């Protein structure tokens, strides 16, 4: 018999098998179109950043931003619905599936979704010749770490709130500012000094820096271990929060 966490993963994959067409555009087509319009179109006017062509510079930013947005989007209504609408989490908990099995299986599913999108994205942009570093092979690992660092706390948040209207606050005050000011489109060094700590506090910025180091070979602003350590803190803290939130919600 499969481990309970693997059984939870299989459940989510079975559901995704019926719905994968709905995510095709946002997961695969949209990032490529965005890269073509911004990287190639705007990049023709910008020229380069730090001696690197803009299209090459923005590739890891778009990749990390796609991972970030997928992790946030997948872990909002889907998690909330498991507790408030279909009570699927309660049904799983009635079996021998534990809270940690539910969280582990869910995060494995998120990583699976992200890795498919990342590999397809890298294959597409690789055809344009904008991947200049052999370290690009570790990009899927960076994406997995970023996905868990984002998905774990968002999953916990979704299991904590009482009404889905709170997601509007998450999208407006966390997701959107992070996408704009986390080094995806321009270096954070161009931000005012008083604003930079907000970028540094975002897991997306750390993911962008690691992805850019992997795809272009450029040295990140902080040491690699510091960026990876920050993402691990988000991941571990998010998993712990999710465990507390799930146990509390399952008592309803």
UniProtKB/TrEMBL annotation:
Q: Where are the transmembrane segments?
A: 19-45, 57-80, 106-129, 135-157, 169-188, 224-246
Task: Look up and give the membrane topology term.
Answer: Multi-pass membrane protein
Q: Where is the ABC transmembrane type-2 domain?
A: 22-249
A Pfam family (short name) is: ABC2_membrane
* Name of the protein this chain belongs to: Transport permease protein
> Keyword Transport, does the record have it?
yes
Homology family: Belongs to the ABC-2 integral membrane protein family.
Q: Where in the cell is it found?
A: Cell membrane; Membrane
Q: Which UniProt keywords apply?
A: Antibiotic resistance, Cell membrane, Membrane, Transmembrane, Transmembrane helix, Transport
């Amino acid at each position: 018999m499969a481990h309970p966490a693997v059984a939870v993963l299989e459940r989510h994959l079975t559901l995704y098998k019926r719905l994968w067409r709905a995510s095709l555009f946002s997961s695969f087509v949209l990032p490529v179109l965005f890269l073509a319009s911004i990287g190639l179109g705007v990049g023709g006017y910008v020229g380069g950043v730090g001696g690197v062509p803009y299209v090459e510079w923005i590739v890891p930013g778009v990749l990390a931003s796609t991972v970030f947005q997928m992790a946030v989007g997948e872990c909002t209504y889907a998690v909330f619905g498991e507790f408030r609408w279909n009570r699927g989490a309660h049904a799983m908990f009635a079996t021998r599936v534990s809270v940690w099995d539910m969280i582990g299986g869910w995060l494995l599913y998120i990583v699976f979704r992200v890795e498919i999108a990342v590999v397809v994205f890298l294959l597409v942009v690789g055809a344009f010749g904008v991947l200049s570093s052999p370290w690009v092979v570790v990009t899927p690992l960076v994406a997995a770490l970023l996905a868990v660092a984002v998905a774990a706390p968002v999953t916990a948040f979704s299991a904590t709130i009482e009404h889905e209207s709170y997601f509007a606050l998450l999208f407006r005050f966390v997701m959107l500012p992070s996408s704009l000011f986390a080094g995806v489109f321009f270096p954070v060094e161009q931000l005012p000094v008083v604003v930079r700590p907000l970028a540094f506090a975002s897991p997306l910025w750390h993911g962008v820096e690691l992805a850019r180091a992997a795809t272009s070979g450029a040295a990140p602003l902080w040491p690699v271990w510091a960026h990876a350590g920050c993402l691990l803190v988000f991941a571990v803290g998010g998993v712990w929060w999710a465990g507390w939130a799930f146990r509390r919600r399952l008592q309803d």
